[in-house]
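note to self: dont lose this again. the chain is below, predicted strucutre after it. 321 aa total, dont forget to put it in the shared folder this time
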Amino acid sequence: MNMTREQIVSIAHLSKVFRVGFWGKRVTAVDDLSLEVQQGEIYGFLGPNGAGKTTTIKMLMGLIYPSSGAASLFGRPIGDQAAKAKVGFLPESPYFYDYLTSREFLRFYGHLFGLLGSTLEKRIDELLELVGMTHARDLQLRKFSKGMLQRVGIAQAMINDPELVILDEPMSGLDPIGRKEVRDLILRLKESGKTVMFSSHILHDAELLCDRVAMIMKGKLVACGHVSELIDHGTTQEVEMVVDRLSPEGVEALRPFTLKTMLHGERVVATLASQRHVDDALEVIRSHQAKLVSLLPHKASLEDLFIRKARGVQQVTEVPV
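---
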């Protein structure tokens, strides 16, 4: 039996236009955007820098007002206080009082939500353990690395035990270890029953984490759906083949089936345009008495989709009027 999950975030035809400069030139940051985030999923909101991701999140959080369209959280308008109380939020460039320790920092935000006494102290201990920061509970934030600050920032977003956690570029600027720590933390949030929506321009992290994604460019939605469906649809499945001791005649016989061929001494690295050409390439290898070292299919990725969509948007914007 199919169970319909609750829509936690709903955005319908949302737009935001800014006026900039002396003459008040209109700049459209978000253009007729519609999407939904369902209960219990990790939802990736993807796009290049300047695509409109942060502007959309600011509208969801009630920090700026939309020019047109509507959005809701838990079925309530975005300005509703009861809905906001169920949300935890980490902005892209938060300012932390760096003279505070982790415990003092979380205590400050707990007071904003009306948490006091032993209830608050227990919550702080739970969150520091959740984000792996128990060892730094009494260390001032000014002594933290970027990854440590991100983790304690996520703990701050969890202080009110929210049902929805919204993270704006949580892995931006982190080294590979820091990114993995944040990825693991997001997965733990999902395991604990939270719905997570995060924005990112780091496509590999989104591919590892997300149930569904939405991709925007220049404020417009260009792709939306389950990750597996998006990366499998309309993508070329290339195959990399490594061959030893293939004669020059064999290399020439292989070229009609390849996108590119590179020679490294006696070794040939060839990229086949499609899995359909594998049998043809193997026949060439056998007939020229060479040795197949490896055969590796290249799985389609969100990066492939991103590049195709970016080229499509660029072509549209460059069409003469």
